[in-house]
Amino acid sequence: MVHRNKITTLTEFIIQRQTEYPHAKGALTRLLNDIATAAKIVNREINAAGLVDILGTVGKENIQGETQKKLDVFANEMFITALKGGGECCAIVSEENEKVISFSNEFSELGKYVVAMDPLDGSSNIEANVSIGTIFSIYRRVSEAGGGTQEDLLQPGTHLIAAGYVIYGSSTMLVYSTGKGVNGFTLDPSVGIFCLSHPNMCFPETGKIYSINEGNYIYFPDGVKQYIKYCQEDDVHSHRPYTSRYIGSLVADFHRNLIKGGIFLYPGTTKQPDGKLRLLYECSPIAYLAEQAGGKASNGFTRILDIEPVSLHQRSPFFVGPCSMVETVEALMRKYHKK
Ligand code: AHG
Ligand code: MN
Ligand code: MN
To answer: Which residues line ligand 1 (CB under 6 A)?
Structure first.
């Protein structure tokens, strides 16, 4: 008799997990499915990007002062449409929109959740056919009724209900957590189904990769400069010098480091003291996944998930990876920068 491994689809997996929450009514399940559906459509468009003339800037700048690509706009609209139509989400904050998008239609104002998202992360890489991603965070609303508000979105990462990312790479994957580990699903493009391919993803204890934009070295704090020096030293016992790898797409850099073992650093600089990455829809969701995978995420002094956000698009220095690697950076930050 031929034995086949049973394929677990994302939908089956989410429904199985729902049974672990006895009072769950399926709202989070439906919300995650809405995100997966939008991701498949964005994936199709990204794959077609080389064929049709969709590349190039729209000519508008987003609120960060960065030029939007057409695919950023498309991905943003696709996720908003899916979340609005799904009815489980009452508000969104997106990298591409200055203000909270509040749904006050007859369905969505009943939605119990709010979503923070970076619809297309690493978008400057699109033209070079380099991996890009989508990042999302899900919180339970704190307001009572009506469309969601800013207050619903300004929650620390410790309040996260779920977070994840989609990586549009050599294959497309959805990686997410609802607080019970991290699981990865690979899209079978022939049938359009995400299948469980990476159950219970965990960081290796320590790693040999460091990922940082070293072009900014001159602007880095001394603690980070010292850490880079540490990574480059010769030490057989700790497998140094480490390998330097930097794609310039947070999702892709984090995904590789999660699988192979490595630290990602985007520090504050003398030009941008809070760094570049946004707390609500880049740092917090990735930090949540890192912790769920046995790793750690810090701004150099404080756990990312403990930071109380004060504005929707605030930035934070970001260090994420296996605990031992992040703790080495934190020790150097404390040594060189009294806080
Ligand atoms: P986005 O495309 O959403 O603006 O994000 C780009 C981010 C992130 O993905 C990446 O880690 C970082 O910018 C790279 O920045 P540098 O080019 O400054 O290294
Ligand atoms: Mn981004
Ligand atoms: Mn983006």
So the answer is: 66, 95, 118, 121-124, 213, 248-250, 276
